[in-house]
Amino acid sequence: MNKKPLIKHGWLRVLIFVLIIAAPSALVHLPATQQYIPFKELFDTTAQKFPMLILSYLASNGFMLIPAFIFCTIVDRRSFKSIGFEWGEYEADAWTGFFAGINIMSTGTLILMLTGTLSLSIVMPNFLQLAYAIVFFVMVAFVEEIVFRGYILRNLLQSLPPTYALVISALIFSLLHLTNPNIGIVPLVTIFALGLLLGINYIHTQNLWFGIFLHFSWNLVQGPLFGYSVAGVSVNSVLQQSLEGSDLITGGSFGFEGSVVALAVIIGITFWVGDMYSGRSHKLK
User: Fold this and answer.
1) Radius of gyration, CA atoms only, the chain
2) Which of 274, 268, 181, 176 is nearest to 230 (CA)?
3) What CA–CA distance (Å, rounded) separates 141 from 138?
4) Is 31 exposed, middle or buried (0-12, 13-18, 19+ CB in 10 A)?
5) Which residues, 6 or more positions from 225, have their beta carbon under 8 angstroms from its beta carbon?
6) Cis peptide before 51 (omega within 30 of 0)
7) Is the distance from CB of 211 to CB of 145 less than 8 angstroms?
8) Banded pLDDT at 1 (limits 50, 70, 90)
9) Does 276 have pLDDT greater than 90?
């Protein structure tokens, strides 16, 4: 017998949850409260080197897993695993997501190279920094997919039509990146579109592996391979970039996610994913 959640409406649970996870970040970035924050350097999202970058992410974003677990098990009164960790029949979805992330990055990069706005050269990377990057991007993929798709989108789906739930969850996903370095309108719109892409799969499958694998490969190929900044943060890479032209086209200091090229490719992949999963909808349990 399923237990009823302590808070009836899914949208209300999401509202309270978002306020809880957003409050610490807002306080850290308010000038009036910064003087009272201990270990402020841990919340510095401009940190560019590992392992400080990992510590910074854990301090500013990693803590979201704690309220997600508490809300899921105590407020929603269901198992944490129920948010979508079943592997079995979803292994193919996971690898579809992985190669979709690679496809987006490779297609966009090829377009930039063909238009003469990007050139790449091979450099000798710092292999320790690359190893840190792999750990970091695995962590980012798990944390953000659990929070934004596994908890927020799932709960919105319990009280709102799927389209509304998808748009709201993607909007929250985008707005909670406001503290990233070099953020702007185009990056926010692109992250919103990426939230739609990741959420469409979750609506149809109720499973996180597609999103986790896509999120990981997207960041890994974007930064450590092609040398873009990742959401405003530069990382050590195998290839070194030379950019020419408008930041609107290249993404500039924010990285590929700040490019209208990225936005166009993501929209194309989103329609493909939506069509692919349209006949596989699962009911929420």
Assistant:
1) 19
2) 181
3) 5
4) exposed
5) 105, 237, 238, 239
6) yes
7) yes
8) very low
9) no
